[in-house]
Design a protein that fits this description.
The complex is a heterotrimer. Chain B contains 3 helices and no strands. Chain B is mostly helical. Chain B starts with 14 loop residues before the first helix and ends in a 5-residue tail after the last helix. In chain C, helix 3 runs antiparallel to helix 4 and helix 4 runs antiparallel to helix 5. The chains are: A mainly alpha, B mainly alpha, C mainly alpha.
């Protein structure tokens, strides 16, 4: 764990936790995101286990129907917005600045704000459990089940406001990463020399920036219907309930690419390292990622094939959906091509990466089956879709994110995770995952609908439901293995070298964990896989270490250090890192207070607004880098 | 933190140019409002007003927001939003039978 | 929201451009999607209200044309304010930014007047000519007030931003180097104007037959 130095050399004179509360360091924010995401993963996982308990046998009453509806709504919402997205954000935060050779992101306080807004949004949403009931209309909240008439009480309001808060957090983070990647790359790192994970972060962030406003409008319209009696989704006034579906899925489909593209980026980093070969077809991988994102805006109504849009609309969207399978398939072949002929080592990150490819292919195949509109008419709203979505989101995103966690844990914490426990985690998870979700294909084809709280005896669904439940608890065991591994290793795992995997990219050229300022000297980059080229240049000569950058930087002391051995924090350069600040947290708190105020009390809402405004003004007038007070070193003027 | 780095391809115009732009915009708006009172088939009216909207939009973006004078990446970021938004609006209108 | 800038060298960023300016343009691109979705909702529901008042019953083209001119003029003011600060002429900046803000407030005044006027039923000689139009009345009311209301909210934020810059200029810190701060506010302000340049024809001119 990095010590908090913040301002040059001066040890923090405050309590350890204040350093975390006021941090603007992308590495700490990454850790905050990661730990929070895992916590919410557990919450969503427990919700899933209760669902599976209820469905293990026919006609059970483990939970009431209404509670069941809240469970599947919160499970979906939590996993998407509070687990997968923040896990991706955790890796964006920690790794991307290192990959591109930067000292931090473009807007460190905005970064901190996005974390606090996410954390408070997640708490706000989940507080609904204790404040009258969680939302119960599915993670997609179709109108007009979500109307005040059909859903009095605050559950849906918590959902609407919670998603608005989380949307603010996501937008803040996305803007930050777009600008960071465009503007803070190391000298010589052109876009086509950037690691693919950085590319996928850029593409994902652009998707977020374009897609989130659409759901914002949908949520605002629903909020206005519920709070102010407007008519957006009131059939009696002539409104069209399908408009909600359109607006939701115009966001919702890009959202699933937001969930998978970072995962694909992780795989594109892990596979080359553990195959000791460059990524096969780098330009094609980049273009495919961009194509998937761009086309992702044109297929939303494949979630609405059974709504009755008509054969022309259905055909257009079906064709578009099938077409997206092309760049996706290209990526899969390129990953395989990366491994082919390589010197492959199956350590845990690689196991998860290969597992990802296999599971994602299965999920992709069921996806293409959905793309065929007539066959989707049978599959829609059945467990076949549940199977598909979990294969791509769990077998895909989560597996890949675990690959990323195992891969980058040494860099983040300075400790190695246990290989043995890692392998146990992987195999138990692979078995458990397939036990849980593969049978759902059969259940779906046999007609079991989604979102039913129980089913009758004699449908013939008993066996597979039981198998699925056993699988779910097996997955829980696997997660426990991971938690055990993570907690034990973080405290007293084996010390990690700078470059435990013989990596290819810049993050492996600095100590584990990195110092506050990341790089002693910002490297100058001459090719892709910049670090690999430096370690094993074409000509075979030993390189002389990282070249310092030219012109104008205050680099005082600090030897260029090699891939081996740990860097130390003395002899740090004279760079100014951005100063810690509590205003991001204050603004996030003000907005959250305002949200509670909209539910309960005008006075509270106004207070929230006031806190937000004070926070914003204070933030604007606070310098990003405070001049050091006291005697340490000369006063460096900007 | 300075902004002295070159965000521009070419120097920004002076106040006189801006005044001329303002007069052009005013004239266009006046024509639009006058045209409102001219009877015409709805299709023609829609095409006319959309055209004028596009022209005024571009003039403000290119001159007042100096996209014409700045590096192209700014226009790229803005254009991404405009294009996707326009496409989505068009698709929704088609789906609802308002156009096509 | 400064980027990490230990060294103020222009060459420090990959593009040579200030990060905050890239940020505002990305933000405006995103806002296109926000207003685009509101406009899409308006257009999808246009003509579908089951009961009145309908657009032709309430929309006043002459009055709204005036407010449109007011907003367009405010953009000229903004541009002159920015030109002033880049010359280092803080007094010119203050004049023009104050005028811009005042024109913005005038526009908001017109909006407020319009909303109030729409919301009240209209009587003539004791006879009801038309009902009031509120967001709750029908689809037109919901979509119209939401779309123009959010635009008005954006104008309000802009006015606050401009007045803050005006006040800030008296602290003596707003110099030529602070021109970027004004540029960012100006881009936002012009964008808000552009959105109205779209809303006015779409809602008022196209939506109503003369």
């Amino acid at each position: 764990m990095t010590t908090v130095t913040g301002v040059r050399g001066r040890r923090a004179a405050y309590k350890w936790w204040w350093g975390w509360v006021t941090t603007v360091d992308h590495k700490r924010i990454g850790v905050l995101y990661g730990v929070s995401a895992i916590a919410f993963l557990l919450v969503g996982g427990i919700e899933a286990l209760v669902i599976r308990l209820q469905l293990a046998r026919p006609e059970q009453g483990v939970v009431s129907p209404d509670t069941y509806n809240q469970l599947f709504t919160m499970h979906g919402t939590t996993m998407i917005f509070l687990a997968i997205m923040p896990l991706s954000a955790s890796l964006f935060n920690f790794i991307v600045p290192l990959l591109i050779g930067a000292r931090d992101v473009a807007f460190p306080r905005l970064n901190a704000f996005s974390y606090w807004m996410f954390a408070m949004g997640g708490v706000f949403l989940n507080s609904s459990w204790f404040l009258g009931g969680a939302p119960n209309a599915g993670w997609f909240g179709y109108a007009n089940l979500t109307s005040k008439a059909y859903n009095p009480g605050f559950g849906i309001d918590f959902w609407v406001l919670g998603l608005l808060l989380l949307g603010i957090a996501s937008l803040a983070a996305a803007f930050n990463f777009v600008i960071t990647i465009i503007n803070l790359r190391a000298p010589g790192m052109t876009f086509m020399r950037m690691p693919v994970f950085a590319w996928m972060t850029l593409v994902t962030s652009i998707l977020m920036v374009l897609a989130f406003p659409v759901i914002t409008v949908a949520l605002v319209e629903l909020l206005f219907d519920r709070k102010f009696g407007t008519n957006f989704f009131v059939p009696a006034a002539g409104a069209d309930l399908v408009l909600w579906q359109h607006l939701f899925w115009i966001f919702g489909h890009p959202e699933v690419y937001i969930l998978i593209l970072p995962a694909m980026g992780v795989i594109s980093e892990v596979l080359p390292t553990f195959s000791r070969k460059p990524l096969f077809g780098y330009p094609v991988m980049v273009i495919s990622g961009i194509a998937i994102a761009f086309m992702g805006f044109s297929v939303w109504a494949h979630h609405m094939f059974t709504v009755g849009l008509g054969p022309v609309a259905n055909s257009v969207f079906a064709l578009g959906t099938m077409t997206i399978a092309v760049p996706t398939g290209v990526k899969v072949f390129n990953w395989i091509g990366t491994m082919w002929g390589g010197s492959v080592r199956f350590q845990t990150p690689m196991l998860f990466a290969v597992g990802f490819i296999a599971m994602f292919i299965i999920g992709g195949l069921s996806g293409v089956m959905h793309a065929i509109a007539p066959s989707d008419a049978q599959q829609q709203d059945t467990y076949f879709v549940v199977a598909h979505l979990h294969y791509v989101l769990f077998g895909g995103s989560i597996f890949a994110l675990f690959a990323g966690i195992y891969y980058w844990f040494p860099k983040i914490t300075g400790r190695m995770l246990s290989e043995k426990l890692g392998k146990v985690h992987f195999w138990i998870m692979l078995v458990g995952f397939n036990l849980t979700f593969f049978p759902m294909h059969f259940l779906g084809l046999e007609g079991m609908p989604r979102r039913i709280y129980t089913y009758s005896q004699g449908q013939g669904w008993d066996l597979w439901n039981m198998v699925s439940t056993v699988g779910a608890f097996t997955m829980a065991l696997a997660i426990l293995m991971f938690l055990l591994n993570a907690v034990r290793s973080w405290r007293k795992g084996e010390q990690a070298p700078d470059d435990p995997w013989d990596g290819r990219t810049l993050e492996w050229s600095i100590p584990s964990p990195p110092p506050t300022y990341n790089f002693i000297a910002i490297p100058t980059v001459h090719s892709r896989d910049a670090f690999w080229e430096q370690k094993y240049p074409q000509g075979g000569e030993i390189s002389t270490g990282i070249r310092g950058d030219a012109g104008g930087r205050h680099i005082a002391g600090g030897t260029a250090h090699t891939a081996l051995g740990q860097g130390k924090e003395e002899g740090h350069p004279g760079v100014h890192m951005p100063s810690p600040s509590y205003w991001p947290l204050v603004v996030a708190a003000g907005i959250t207070l305002g949200a509670y105020g909209l539910l309960y009390s005008l006075l509270l809402a106004v207070t929230g607004l006031a806190v937000t405004l004070v926070g914003i003004y204070s933030w604007s007038f606070e310098p990003a880098v405070k001049q050091p007070k006291g005697k340490l070193g000369k006063d460096k003027k900007e | 933190m300075s902004n002295v780095s070159e965000p521009r391809e070419r120097p920004h115009p002076g106040p006189l140019t801006y005044l001329k732009v303002a007069l052009v915009l005013g004239a266009l708006t006046a024509i639009e409002v006058a045209a409102f009172y001219v009877p015409a088939p709805q299709g023609v009216r829609v095409a006319f007003f959309l055209l004028f909207t596009g022209v005024e939009f571009s003039i403000v973006a290119m001159f007042y927001m100096h996209l014409r004078y700045d590096r192209r990446i700014f226009a790229g970021l803005f254009l991404a939003g405009i294009l996707v938004a326009t496409a989505i609006i068009a698709a929704l209108l088609a789906l609802y039978g308002v156009i096509g | 929201m400064e980027h990490v800038a230990p060294i103020p060298h222009a060459a420090e960023t990959s593009t040579g451009l200030p990060s905050r300016k890239l940020l505002i343009w990305a933000f405006l691109g995103s806002e296109c999607m926000f207003f685009g979705s509101l406009i899409a909702t308006y257009l999808v529901y246009q003509g579908k209200s089951l009961i009145g008042p309908f657009p032709k019953d309430v929309l006043d083209i002459p009055v709204t044309s005036v407010s449109t001119f007011v907003l367009l003029t405010s953009s000229l003011g903004m541009v002159l304010a920015y030109a002033g600060i880049t010359r280092g002429d803080v007094w010119a900046f203050r004049r023009w930014i104050l005028l811009t803000a005042l024109l913005g407030i005038t526009f908001l005044g017109f909006q407020a007047f319009e909303f109030y006027h729409f919301a009240n039923p209209v009587y003539e000689n004791g006879e009801l000519i038309r009902q009031g139009l509120t967001p709750r009345t029908n689809l037109f009311g919901s979509t119209f007030f939401t779309l123009t209301g959010f635009h008005g909210a954006h104008v309000t934020v802009g006015v606050i931003w401009l007045l803050s810059l005006f006040a800030y200029s008296f602290r003596g810190d707003l110099t030529r180097e602070g021109a970027l701060n004004v540029d960012l506010a100006a881009l936002y302000w012009h964008f808000v104007d552009i959105v109205w340049v779209v809303i006015f024809p779409v809602v008022y001119l196209i939506g109503v037959q003369p």
